[in-house]
Amino acid sequence: MKNRIKVLRAERDWSQQTLAQELGVSRQAVNAVERGKHDPSLQLAFDIANIFNLRIDDVFFPEKKLNTDSNEES
Amino acid sequence: MAKSKAEITFMKRFMTAMVVFLLLIAIQAFSLELLNMPTWLNVAATVLPVAPLVWAFFIFRTRYRTLDEYMKALTGEAFLWMIGLLCFSSFIYGMLAMKFPMPEVNLAFVMPAVFGGHGLIVQLLVWRDNEESN
């Protein structure tokens, strides 16, 4: 799962440690989520979105969009 | 980097358990060598140091439950590595022991090796994570 955490952090001039403290998780957790190495739980994803005052799908989006529309049409 | 309150509490309790363990080892050695006790007391004195280790295990479990989801995943991965290492090394040892004379291994060393190895692997995984992010 991709995300915009790094950009959102940079906009607020927050370090990974600052965000981790806000979320109550380790810096390693923020780092892993940010790099797409770890898919966060739904709760953590909501927490991250809430910290940035955004909706969850404004922060996280899938790696590849499934091309189901064209299959349904054919 | 400042340690969290949970980390400090964990370290204090864990180190206390280790100090109690060392004290009981000393008591065990003293009582077995110098006192003439009945067999059941000798057995009790021999296994007495296990108690603080069980306590340390529960301290670690409490600490594990306070970890965030990613650190839990890393800790779990480290356990998988350690179980793999233990199983493969004991299997290799057993296979060799069937065919060749092998040095004796005291089973009492397995537990500290596993727990110590696990702690080391967790640190390695965290270090690798930090290296990848730089």
User: Biggest β-sheet of chain A: count, sense, barrel?
Assistant: 2 strands, antiparallel
Q: Stretches of chain A where pLDDT falls below 50 for ≥5 residues?
A: none
In CATH's first tier, which class of chain A applies? Mainly Alpha
Kindly name the structural category of chain A.
Answer: mainly alpha
Number of discrete helical segments of chain B: 5
Domain count of chain A: 1
In CATH terms, the superfamily of chain A is lambda repressor-like DNA-binding domains
Keywords (chain B): Membrane, Transmembrane, Transmembrane helix
Pfam families (chain A): HTH_3
Keywords (chain A): DNA-binding
Protein name (chain A): Helix-turn-helix transcriptional regulator
What would the keywords be for this entry?
heterodimer; A: 74 residues; mainly alpha; 434 Repressor (Amino-terminal Domain); two-stranded antiparallel sheet; 6 helices; 59% helix; 5% strand; globular; B: 134 residues; 5 helices; 83% helix; flat; DNA-binding (chain A); Cro/C1-type_HTH (chain A)
Write a short abstract of this structure.
Chain A is mainly alpha-helical.
Report what the structure shows.
The complex is a heterodimer of chains A (74) and B (134). Chain A is mostly helical and 74 residues long. Chain A has one domain: lambda repressor-like DNA-binding domains (434 Repressor (Amino-terminal Domain)), CATH 1.10.260.40. Chain A contains six helices and two strands, in the order βαααααβα. Chain A has helices spanning 5-12, 16-23, 27-34, 42-51, 56-59, 68-73, and strands at 2-3, 60-61. In chain A, strands 1-2 form a two-stranded antiparallel ribbon. The longest helix of chain A is centred in the middle third of the chain and has 10 residues, at 42-51. The relative contact order of chain A is 0.19. Chain B folds into two domains: 1-66; 67-134. By secondary structure, chain B is mainly alpha-helical. Chain B starts with a helix and ends with a helix. Chain B has five helices and no strands. The A-B interface holds A 17, 24-29, 31-33, 35, 37-38, 40-41, 44 and B 1, 67-71, 73-74, 126, 129-130, 132-133. Chain A: It comes from Rheinheimera baltica. Chain A: Pfam families: HTH_3 (PF01381). Chain A: Keywords: DNA-binding. Chain A: This is Helix-turn-helix transcriptional regulator. Chain A: Residues 5-59 form the HTH cro/C1-type domain. Chain B: The chain crosses the membrane at residues 41-58, 78-96, 108-127.
